[in-house]
Design goal:
- With 123 residues, the protein is of the alpha+beta class.
- It has helices spanning 20-30, 49-53, 66-69, 83-93, 112-122; strands at 34-39, 42-48, 97-102, 105-111.
Length: 123
Amino acid sequence: MKVVEIMNKNVIACRPSELLTVIINKFELFNIAGMPVVEKGKLVGIICQSDILKNVNLENFHTLTVKDVMVTDVIYVSPAESVIDVAKIMCEKGVNRVPIVENDIVVGIVTRGDIIKAVAECG
């Protein structure tokens, strides 16, 4: 099975300049725990709840932006990647979500939950 078959194509993304307080609202509004960071259509990072929680006690929290806390060494795959390979990558790298990128554009995202759901539906 290819990752294109299970990926979420309606990707909620953010920009590096967005305030963390806005991102927290997006997490709640869209019931997500992380999202790709894009600039001019290209993937430049990823941010998740734990990235924000590491900084929540800072005095200047309300002025922090995505760029201040995002991970820039993003693990991503193409839509043609196998679901099993993506699951292995997630386990090896300790990540919960992987952006799907084609021609430098984010076309989807896969979470551990998406993989579990796909496995459950196969059995």
